[in-house]
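Dear colleagues,

As part of the handover before I leave the project, I'm documenting each prediction I ran so the next person doesn't have to rerun anything. This entry is a single chain, and its sequence is reproduced below.
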Amino acid sequence: MTKAVTKTTAASLLIYSAAGVELRAQALQRARTRLRALGFEAVLDPSTKLRHQRFAGRDDERLATLHRVADAAPPVALACRGGYGMTRLLDAIDWKRIARSVDKGTRWVGFSDLTALQMGLLAHTGASSWAGPMACDDFGRADAEGGVEAVTRDCFVEAMSGVLHAVGFRTEPGFDGLRAKGVLWGGNLAMLCSLLGTRHFPRVKGGILFVEDVNEHPYRVERSLLQLHQAGVLADQKAVLLGAFTDYKRSPLDRGYTLKTAIACLRATTRTPLLTGLPFGHVPVKASFPLGVRVQLLVDGRDVLIGW
């Protein structure tokens, strides 16, 4: 990942909302201002003002938002936030319409609830998308809360400019020499499990799966990964990359049970390598990388490189 900002040429970046309601008006304005300062021609889609219960508009409005953004085919379609709501739309989305925007050059970027859109797109059309930051969550963060994280910002700028071809991170010992090639896919663990058994779940074999989650205790992370294992998904992968699992509450019943011991249990259950340390999730530092494309995974000592 980079350590210096590369200014982009003027490009259209459309900020839209099609999942949870976005109430952070000041954060939204900060995000647009900061993205423009980075060289993006950032525009706010009307959907950022829609409100219905906990959603960014009624279901029909949010579906129309996705199709409108797809038809506009901006170079970058950046989600405001995740939350919940994309699952309601999956059966009605015109996936070919979304895929046509990708063919025209649109990079759909996001994480969390957007996993449902990204994986549905992969399952139905094979089209790619991007795991990466979101407008308010990352570019709209107030300075008092840390502002925009530098690595997140720089990685996003280079990824959207088309000059980023690899990301790296450090993992635990024990995987030196691992080499693998396959389709990179995945996202939020809870969302992936919610898709399992549906027509919206990608049937990826020989791939490289990544997962992350928030507000999920380690036993729930373990349970979800065991579900993927018992469904045969983990065995079909060449490697699994574990991002951040944050903001859960410990229980007095844990008695030494931690995320580390949960991962140890899973490693004893599957032969598929489980690598920790991927800089991605509900955390300030997150990489940007493509989903649904073939990548190469290299491990040298504790250094991991994913190239595409």
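Residues 92 and 155 are 33 Å apart (CA to CA). The chain has two domains: 11-161, 166-307.

All the best with the project,
I.
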